Predict the structure.
Amino acid sequence: MTAARSRWSSDELEQVRNLAASYFTKEVLPNVPKHVAQGYPDKALYRRAGELGLLCMSIPEAYGGGGGTFAHEAVLIEEQVRAGDPSMGFAVHCTIVAHYVLAYASEAQKKRWLPKLASGEWVGAIAMTEPGTGSDLQAISTRAVRDGDFYRVSGSKTFISNGRVCDFLIIAARTGDAKGHAGISLLCAEVSDTTPGFERGRILDKLGGKGQDTTELFFDDLKIPATNVLGGEEGQGFIQLMQQLPQERLSTALIAMASLERAVDLTVEYTKQRHAFGKPLFALQNTRFELAECATLRRVCRSFIDDCIESHLKGGLDVTTAAMAKYWVTDQACIVADRCLQLFGGYGYMKEYPIAHLFADTRVLRILAGANEVMKELVARSL
Amino acid sequence: MTAARSRWSSDELEQVRNLAASYFTKEVLPNVPKHVAQGYPDKALYRRAGELGLLCMSIPEAYGGGGGTFAHEAVLIEEQVRAGDPSMGFAVHCTIVAHYVLAYASEAQKKRWLPKLASGEWVGAIAMTEPGTGSDLQAISTRAVRDGDFYRVSGSKTFISNGRVCDFLIIAARTGDAKGHAGISLLCAEVSDTTPGFERGRILDKLGGKGQDTTELFFDDLKIPATNVLGGEEGQGFIQLMQQLPQERLSTALIAMASLERAVDLTVEYTKQRHAFGKPLFALQNTRFELAECATLRRVCRSFIDDCIESHLKGGLDVTTAAMAKYWVTDQACIVADRCLQLFGGYGYMKEYPIAHLFADTRVLRILAGANEVMKELVARSL
Amino acid sequence: MHARTPEQAAFAAAIDAFCRAKTGTRAQRDALTRNGTEAHSPPLYAQMAELGWLGVGIPLEYGGSGGGMTDICLFAERTSYGLAPVGGYVTTAVAAGPYMKFGTREQREKVLGGIIRGRVEAISISEPGAGSDAAAITCRAARTSGGFVINGQKTWCSNAHLADHLLLVARTSNSGSRHEGLTMFCVPAGTPGMEIRGIPTLGGKEVNDVYFTDCFLPESTVVGAVDQAWPQLMAGLNSERLILAASMLGRGRRAFDDAVAYVKERKQFGKPVGSFQALKHRIADLAMELDCCELLLYRVAAMADEAPERMLPREASMAKLKATETAKRVALEGMQMMGGYGYALEYDMESHLRATVISTVYGGTSEIQRDIIGKTLGL
Amino acid sequence: MHARTPEQAAFAAAIDAFCRAKTGTRAQRDALTRNGTEAHSPPLYAQMAELGWLGVGIPLEYGGSGGGMTDICLFAERTSYGLAPVGGYVTTAVAAGPYMKFGTREQREKVLGGIIRGRVEAISISEPGAGSDAAAITCRAARTSGGFVINGQKTWCSNAHLADHLLLVARTSNSGSRHEGLTMFCVPAGTPGMEIRGIPTLGGKEVNDVYFTDCFLPESTVVGAVDQAWPQLMAGLNSERLILAASMLGRGRRAFDDAVAYVKERKQFGKPVGSFQALKHRIADLAMELDCCELLLYRVAAMADEAPERMLPREASMAKLKATETAKRVALEGMQMMGGYGYALEYDMESHLRATVISTVYGGTSEIQRDIIGKTLGL
């Protein structure tokens, strides 16, 4: 059962889909073992994606982007999951980092930074979480101290996606003396392995998402031009984060959605071909009901997600609905992945079967982009 | 939080909604205690609904109907649930019985029967289930034996909605010698308390749905004109049932949907006003998370149901999707009703609180119109 | 699955035989309960009293048969399984505790003696504004010459309409913390100034509102110490939670057995519906969970019997939480397995559902039990 | 919550102390397991052998310390809780059963003696086309002069790379029903014609494919009777399920304790995250379910010890089903409670998840256990 084309799709988007599918399966997948071994993806593959026009598709052409919409990003996200690539950090690079720049940077900064992100010359990352924070952004302790035309940034971050390969980094840090949310600013840094005051820490080994670099980062008097405060003035960071979060959360939900669809597809195929007790596993009522339930969840989630995407394309995706999507679809994806793995039996645990990776990769979605418990609190506030 | 207007709605439909809401709250609700006491609704209220134009709204005007679409029926279903009336059997009368007639009866029969159903002069019912059947329609044993220009029908039925008040009855019976599905026909009978060979059995007392008559029916050589076989020839019953089931299942899902929405509304309101340990129940994290989860389910179900309604309005609702909607939304409605009742504490068990009725009324939705287990089997067949 | 001693096995067998004989059919039960509208049958209860069963858990010196929490639970479980309409037992057994521990000799003789003879007792704690949060009680007991004058409203009072006495908790002092200043009283039925009104619920006639208007209670009605109701209540929580758990274990087992009997009998598509894997697997899970409930309940009851003075907040809360949630789950799934028959009043499943769905609320909601367990874990 | 005898309590305390000392830190465990890539540490296991622990459940006449299923389960539970990398134990303990019951004197002395000294044993039943459905075995043992020639592929063979012997089940006859014609063999490591290849899994190096190509086994390697492997296997199912359950109870308890320690420590919004009701309630449920697992497991183990020959299909399946499903649930929820830290390899939660997620599959999937339970209920 192939999913029907979504209402928000178009012929052009389906062409992008084919291009993305071909890129992931033919160019990325052969390199995944290497990425897993080294712990991060090859940057050449970012540049290749840029060449193909797959990066920053929802950024205006004036800044080197594709001039498309979130629907283009959605197609890219879906095809990465369908191909089963765990390694490329596009969701952060395209749907998060580039959009902070687009929304808050000055015209000159946009002209400087966005084309490099769109071409894949640079990889983008955003450094929010610290060892002592998590969902509690008020607890950020990384400090940016004004020193003439510069800030000097000191502190440490962790769980930073693309932390090993990034060239461009948005850092959430405290500026000035304001307490709580009011003291947080976002600062953009151009970084390299030799940037003074910037150190890439360990690549964190994770249950899943192997081959995609999640790292610690350390700042020790890292110098950043004072003009690189996003939005041009201090203390806007928290509001900026809040404004961008719906898209980030929707992207996360969409990864979950595609994972859920893939889990069902893989499992229907497997249980039809695998025999036990003299007949296909699929003939057992338990298997049929499990998959009927999973397929129903898939259909229901898809209705909801498509609804959210359409709202977002119209600019109407509110915080509550995005939180619902993030919490609910990621929860369901994990549940479905677990039930599908169970239907694979022992083979579900073997690394040669993609369901094993899917189970491990999906799990983190309930945690990142705001833990699902935080999402529920956001929903509750709307009631 | 009031639900947003559905995509498929319109100003005209919202006017119908207001009319229906007023009818249920002002005219029906005051009579519910009487209906509960006697076990069936007053037929005068059917005629009143007919006067207001609320019956058979999706039947063409040529047959006395409203000339509308399923969306009109959907509005009526939603408003009945929102008002909290358990007693009127409109879902069966309008969305099922009238549509069998519209789809399969001869022009003359349509002209004769439909205006009476649309005006509320007659109440319609459909007699499928027997003590030995249930979801297994092949096991039907009621027989219709051809006798000249008539059939003589003998057998017994149970769980028949509107069985006490109906004037028009569609009976599923075996005709001829064909075994299995091929031997089943649908016959239309005009019935009254004095019809020879027709006997209304006990009104079954149920956990919920109080005031709505669910009965046994007995046939002992009930004479029905041979022309009253729906579709004009024998053996079409099973196919006819299959064709009508998606709409019936969607209606059931929609009752569940409206129930779920009402449960959340009632509970948000209650927990904000009820205090424990010195603060509103709603301030407790458990309450907030429970309601956030229930509200998310509400939002997700609504996306899915609206999707199904739109498909159905375009004639594209397939058996699988209808089965998904029936199984999934009714399951979720029961789960949400149970969780909401729990948040009411002891008051949720008291009859003066509508959540107690809602919990009891909702439960049957997982059983009727094809048990949810049967729905899962239908979904599995599509995989 | 729990291993019973030979005495316990014999006791359980006797109760089971009694219930099969007296309450085995719907017609028998309907006759005893005015067609299901009443939860307690005094004549049936009197027969149990004659058999000496109601003295279980009551000390020999007051005419009981001794025994401990394990035996009380066994009685509650098996009568509940047998659908014996003795709904008054649970609250009566719980009410016995404070009298045994804190009552005067005279109160004990009167109340415990009555219990053994088949009299029913009630407890009145909850108020419209004080449910799970009992410390919020506002019903006032004002000192007056020779006793107290009570004013206020109580609610959710099981048995009040049947009971010889209400064990009332009222506020005697407003100083100190919310938990201080509460006192227990033994209020005889028919005391002037006390009015009892039934509350219609999904479960029929079981609970009542109780109104006190200038109701005079003499000093001798105080149970235990003035202002000390809170610690006295706490001391009874083990037994309340365990007895409720036992009762729901029995009801859950009954719902399970009823559902299994049905799915073995009922045929669809040419086979018993119980042979379909989807139902078989669900039933297997329920069987397992019921065994877990039983082992948990009787382990905690044994712990209570080993050290009767020990508070077992975590363990007793677990037993109550697990048994009530499981019983509700069994009834919900049993109803689904029985299809339309589960929903129709002529089968018992809908009554199992009504009985179990409220069990996660009374005696401390499931949420409260989880709070307590979490607290004992240091959270 | 299960009541241990003083001897059992002392045994458990000794294991716990040993694990705290030897495997208490991640660094210690990494050193013993090549950074987590190996599941079994022969040196550590040898220390346990010296303490006499590996003889638990082995009769005194073969040098064991006697004891029964309860003691074996205690060992499996506590070593699993202590994260001792002795993954070879479970299969070894299960393998011991058929040798004890059906082996020749010589086989018993060799295998059981080895086990007590810290040697590992393996069992090879599953094939690519025969997982939960063991009767579908096709690996062929053809009679030849003085013995049998084995050809075929086995899979999912734990310990094969470490074991002294493989307890192989192969088909000696095709006549009769699918369950007939299977025979057990004791295949020494290094037997020519047997090749062992590791399978990469989410859990690291644990299981293997085993290939037999014209592998000759002398008559003396037959364990029990020719063509009688099926009933011999059935006789060992109680112990397999209980030991697996015990191991997962230990792992589940460890995941629970790790999660609780984390949520007490970790602060968000100025409070320990464990103080949030949403987490507290989930933890309360998990605590309750773990206690249920423990009571169920040790009750079934006690039943097995009371009547070692009795098949306990329902009870043993319940113990396995409940413990593995609960352990998985604890690990899944534990990971969520720990946020990103649960996902990162430097905490143990992700290894708990990997260990428990497969436990619902091996030793008979949860679905098979439910089928068995349903069957014993007459469905």
The longest helix of chain D spans residues 277-306. The beta strands of chain D are 121-124, 140-144, 147-158, 165-171, 182-188, 194-198, 207-218, 222-223, 267-268, 271-272. The radius of gyration of chain D is 21 Å.
